[in-house]
Amino acid sequence: MVKKSTRTFQLIPLANRFQREPRFYLSWSADYRSRLYPQQSLLQPQSSDHEKSILTFADCCKLDKRGEICAAQAVGAAMLGSKVPFNQRTNWTFDNKQLIKAIAEEPLRMSTQIDQADEPWQFLQLAMEWNRVVLNTDKYIWDVPIGADSTASGLQLISAMRRDRTGMLYSNLLPIKNINEAPKDAYSEVLRMAREAAESSVENMWLSKFMHDRKLAKPILMTALYNSTDYGNRQSIRDYFIDEGVFPEEINFNDVVTIYRFLMDASKKLFADAFQTIDWINKLVKIALNKSDNGLRWTTPTNDIIHLIEFETKTRRIQCTHLGKVTIGTGYSDLLDKRKMRNSLAANYIHSYYPSLLKSAFRDWDQPIALIHDCLKVLPNDMDRALERIKKGFVHVCSGDPLARLADDLNVSEQVLPRLKQGSGRLIEVLDSAYMFN
């Protein structure tokens, strides 16, 4: 809370100063995988709910009919969250005109209602803009960004590469059957399976009452596909229960280990192909590193060459007055750190594909847009077109057999490491998906 307050005190005067300018620009950096990061510490779109809520595009649009629907969906999503169907988000906005008007015009009096929103500050920003542009029509144009995020980026990519229909289903790559259908939630499904497994065990049945929040499963499944460690995963579960105020009084560390086992077993059972892929990549990198003394290179579908190379850290032991002997880093040696490269290839390979997707989708885009990793922000009139480009770009980067291409790039033949077979999922169905970016 102290950090948030300090940041707010820094942010507001800066925003007031920038508000006098017709526009300002952000500078961005791209790491060696092409993942984009804003270089500013304040007033940038990869930040807190509050900070995002005071940013607008310098360029605007007059809402057309479809743009108004997209804006209404954004208002509803900020209040209800993105786990409800599109039509429910839209209906909430149109059915709550008086509430939105009251919130926009008297936000302090209506603060209790604002606090109920999934993203309170961005909801307030969108409610104010909706009130000015749509309800009161005293503002002619709309300039507030609306966003869409990948629902499970790592799982989406691995599942599409493997044509794993189960993974594609739960990461929302497949079409929905009717407009009232909500997006699938891979994390909630893993949590449900883990809870059922706990309930079937007399010894561990009592733990099931602590396994209802998807936030418990999300970091496990999300990071396990990036080769995270058991230690780190268990710590994230422990930290969750600390935040909930039940550790260590009601849940001890042995219980954390048990819950983690249930979550991992459920993840590997539901998404067997994804975890098989990670195991295959780990075998691949071990073979490749035995043949290479210059790191690992692969080419993305947009012809970017990624060079993964890590060097061992030089260290020095020093004697401190109060801390005793401490090891500090003093730079990098000329020796390759093959262990670090072996542990990081899966994550870095997957992370190189979403920048490739965004580059493929938006290389000639000329409307206002903010792109970060696996999410985007555009004006309401542009959302449909942006999502269509995302889907086409996704099909492009996942076409063929990307994992086989990775093995070829790393000079590992099929005789040395057999290629993984693809399943029955049809990549073309992604073009009709509703919630791929949500």
Describe this entry's structure for a reader.
With 438 residues, this protein is mainly alpha-helical. Among the domains are: 2-149, Helix Hairpins (Orthogonal Bundle), CATH 1.10.287; 153-273, no CATH class. The chain contains 17 helices and nine strands. The chain has helices spanning 2-18, 49-52, 65-80, 86-95, 97-105, 111-115, 120-135, 153-162, 165-170, 186-199, 214-224, 230-244, 253-270, 272-291, 338-362, 383-398, 402-409; strands at residues 28-30, 36-38, 146-149, 296-299, 305-308, 311-320, 324-336, 369-372, 375-378. A three-stranded antiparallel beta sheet has the order 3-9-8. Strand 6 and strand 7 form a beta hairpin. Helix 11 packs across helix 13 (253-270) and helix 12 (230-244) packs across helix 13. The model has no long low-confidence stretch (mean pLDDT 94).
Shape summary: globular
Radius of gyration: 24 Å
Please give the oligomerization state of what you see.
Answer: single chain
Distance linking N and C termini: 29 Å
Low-pLDDT windows of residues: none
Report the CATH C-level class of the domain at 2-149.
Mainly Alpha
Mean pLDDT: 94
Helical coverage, percent range: 40-55%
Query: Structural class of the secondary elements?
Result: mainly alpha
Number of strands: 9
Give the topology string: H per helix, E per strand.
HEEHHHHHHEHHHHHHHEEEEHEEHH
Strand content: 5-15%
The fold-level CATH name of the domain at 2-149 is Helix Hairpins
Largest sheet: 3 strands, antiparallel
Enumerate how many helices there are, as a single number: 17
Assign the CATH architecture of the domain at 2-149: Orthogonal Bundle
How are the strands of the largest sheet arranged?
Answer: 3-9-8
